[in-house]
Amino acid sequence: MITIIRLFFSLGAFFLVQSAVDAIAKHKSYRGILILCDQLKNEKDPRALFGLAKACRIRNAYLRDSLVEFLQRKDLTYRGKAAALESLGFQCDPRDLTYLLQIVQDKNEIGLHSIIRSGALRALGRHRSMEGFKYLMTRLPLGLEPERARAAIIDGLAASAGWQERRYLKEVIEVISDSLRDTNLNVRWSCASALVQLEATEKATELERSKPNFAEQDWPYLERKVHTLRTSSPNDKCKELQKNIEDLETKLKKLEDKISEREAKEKAEKQKVDVISSETKNEI
């Protein structure tokens, strides 16, 4: 596999490079990660930069350092830089928080159609830090972020909320459900996806009632999201967890029985040896 991937990179064709990085992203081997690090330094085709950066969503120290170096390049495309920021956020390295906050507040780092700003906002969510989460919570009101980037705030909050205290999770769900009535259609769609991602089953009815806020031809897709939300009950997960615990308890009980049986045999054998030793001494 690795040999074929190296061959694809050596040929240099864009579609072959894309196929190679997709294979590495699925493979997630150590050697594959080293190849990605090498390509982040040497890839010149601007069409390949987005797919290459997106494939780096594998948590690894070497890959993190290569992404930091990659982001300093001057020839990055908007999509390439946005994908690299998201991959850097995925590393969850505390050292990157200051940099991500700096990028997300830099007026010169917005990009065409707010592509870079959107990537930076999603990166803060993927970083899972409390500081990044709190920053995202303050950026949803109109006028604070470019209109095209506001949907990325919802995406970031959905990615981060599950890693915060439960009280923050409830707060995020309320904010997202309220934003189902936002003036921005992309924000509304991000909210629908976020509620499913956060398994906010209590908001299924509210999501269903928001259908008039979407185009009629999109209603079947929205209904599938409502169905997914209603069927992703936490009770099912609790039952599965309970079953796993019961299975573990059964295995533990069997192990304890085997240990007790073994100890009993060893004790019986020891007593037998003691009796034989005692009889031998008496004969002497």
Folded structure, characterized:
The longest helix is centred in the C-terminal third of the chain and has 50 residues, at 234-283. The model has no long low-confidence stretch (mean pLDDT 86). With 284 residues, this protein is an all-alpha fold. The chain has 15 helices and no strands. α1 (2-11) packs antiparallel against α2 (14-27), α10 (150-161) runs parallel beside α12 and α12 (185-197) packs parallel to α14.
Q: How far apart are the termini?
A: 75 Å
Sheet/helix structural class: mainly alpha
**Unreliably modeled segments:** none
- How many strand segments? 0
**Topology pattern, helix = H, strand = E:** HHHHHHHHHHHHHHH
Averaging pLDDT over every residue, what do you get?
Answer: 86
* CA-based shape: extended
